[in-house]
Description:
Elements: E1 4-16, E2 29-41, H1 58-73, E3 76-80, E4 98-101, H2 107-119, E5 127-136, E6 139-144
Parallel strand pairs: 1-3, 3-4
Antiparallel strand pairs: 1-2, 2-5, 5-6
Amino acid sequence: MARIRxxxxxxxxxxxxxxxxxxxxxxxxxxxxxxxVTVTGHPVKDENDPKHGMVIDFGDLRKIVAETVVxxxxxxxxxxxxxxxxxxxxxxxxFEKLRVVDYQPTCENMIVDFAKRIKNRLPAGVxxxxxxxxxxxxxxxxxxxxxxx
Length: 149
């Protein structure tokens, strides 16, 4: 039985700042992120199943990633819980979609967070194979399940 990989691309906009960083990314700035989600599994063999021939319906994968990542982070400001609250508390409506996370919001840490969120929602028989999070036109991180077992 063939094992197949299925990939879907997602785009979202997000701002972040790297607390205590020694470069320009310590300042609040934004990116147009591109997330590639690859899952693996065996296509459904049951001809009576509406998902016959699919590992996962692209629409189902879109819904999972939209609910766990895109809706949560699109047009959000992501900062570490280590940032003193007085640094952002007075920004009011500009920080309406502020997400304070338990990690430094680097591309590397974000992809680990996204992997956890997505893995927990995949249907039986479908496994997360890899993620690629592109932060700029020339920079991205990758996460592979085989590296994280």
